[in-house]
Design goal:
The chain is α/β, with parallel strands linked by helices and about 200 residues long. It contains ten helices and six strands; from the N terminus they run H-H-H-E-H-E-H-E-H-H-E-H-E-H-E-H.
């Protein structure tokens, strides 16, 4: 009976994405900003995603970007009055050293390093599937209180699969389903979410 109930819940999640006034407004803003109907239609939110970003914007925290390009876009977009720090760990010396010693990717080690510090975080992942995979690995091992993910990975089947795994997890997330997305899309999505929060 329990297994059947879980299967039904999983099926409902695949058919009926979470939606409320704020998610619909954010998706509409994204459509108006980009003119990309497919991108806007692919946008999905977990139930606590926007409230998590609202709390981060109110109390302060770190936006962790997977690439310097995305970090630069976010810094230029972010309203100066918000108590948010934008960081990308990918080129830090500690990351380079650990990645070499562990024989793993810098994207994975950058996630490790970011999660070593306390405080709220929004991981923005636009082009590094390894970063998203690593965040979810950490979540399977321990609670990640105050950590949310916004990802718009696009292209390869591995990226699509990872986004579906995130969607099936219990992490707060905002994501684009399927092949839609990219670095610019990630920044546009955050901007539209922040505008929605400001209006509400």
């Amino acid at each position: 009976m329990i297994k059947r109930t879980r299967r039904v819940a999983d099926l409902r999640r695949s058919i009926l994405p979470f939606s409320n006034e704020e998610t619909e407004l954010a998706a509409q803003k994204l459509l108006e900003k980009t003119g990309d109907e497919a991108l806007s239609a692919s946008l999905q939110f977990s139930p606590t995603a926007i409230s998590g970003i609202r709390q981060l914007a109110r109390n302060g925290g770190v936006i962790v970007c997977d690439t310097q390009v995305l970090a630069s876009l976010v810094k230029n977009m972010l309203p100066s009055e918000l108590p948010l720090e934008v960081r990308c760990f990918i080129d830090e010396k500690e990351v380079l050293m650990r990645a070499d010693a562990m024989r793993t990717t810098r994207a994975e080690v950058a996630v490790d390093l970011a999660l070593e510090s306390e405080g709220g975080k929004l991981f923005m992942i636009g082009s590094a599937p390894a970063a998203l995979s690593r965040v979810m690995q950490h979540r399977r091992r321990r609670p990640l209180t105050g950590v949310s993910v916004l990802t718009s990975l696009n292209g390869f089947s591995n990226a699509i699969s990872l986004k579906e795994r995130l969607r099936e997890s219990d992490m707060p997330y905002i994501l684009t389903r399927g092949k839609n997305g990219g670095v610019n899309a990630a920044c546009d999505i955050l901007e539209c979410v922040l505008e929605t929060i400001k209006e509400k």
